[in-house]
Amino acid sequence: EDVVVIETDDAVLVMHKSKAQQIKEAVQHCKANDRKEHLEHPRVHRPWGWYEGIDQGERFQVKRIMVKPGEKLSLQMHHHRAEHWIVVSGTAKVTVDGKEILLTENQSTYISLGHIHRLENPGKIPLHLIEVQSGSYLGEDDIVRFEDNYGRTT
Fold first, then answer.
1. What is the radius of gyration, based on Cα positions, of the chain?
2. 100-110: average pLDDT
3. Which residue has the higher pLDDT, 31 or 153?
4. What are the φ and ψ backbone dihedral angles of 13, each rounded to 5 degrees?
């Protein structure tokens, strides 16, 4: 009775509603312990679909990616990381340095550091894949965009 329940994919907070102002303390605890839950959700939505972090460590991170039918990510490149894409379901159209390939379930490709690439879903069902990034820097701000359907070119 008289409780506040907040649930996300990675956390559950239950407290008496009279203590709701103490949520600030939970946020401060996250900041003090270099946590990111107060800044971002595990699933990040984009116009083309979404991605979510599965695992990360020193010099690597793993993401689950879903691309909506008919959508594509920007034509891009990274200075500090390489990527390995494994198709779980659907069809992926992959462009690397101007060459296109189609990948289907259980197929994969590797994009070396510095190569210009794009991922797209030419199919009628959602494309699901696993992305393994490796390199010296893995932040989203390492993306150099050359073309983008959503106005995000650099």
1. 19
2. 98
3. 31
4. -120, 125
Strand order across the beta sheet in which 92-96 lies: 99-103, 92-96, 117-120, 75-78, 143-147
Paired with 49 in beta bridges are 46, 67
Tokens 């979510």 -> residue: 52
Residue 81 burial (CB count, 10 A): 21
pTM flag (> 0.90): no
d(CA 31, CA 25) in angstroms, rounded, equals: 10
Q: What is the extent of the structural domain holding 10?
A: 3-32
CATH number at residue 80: 2.60.120.10
How far apart, in whole angstroms, are the C-alpha atoms of residue 118 and residue 47?
15
User: What is the reported pLDDT for 82?
Assistant: 97
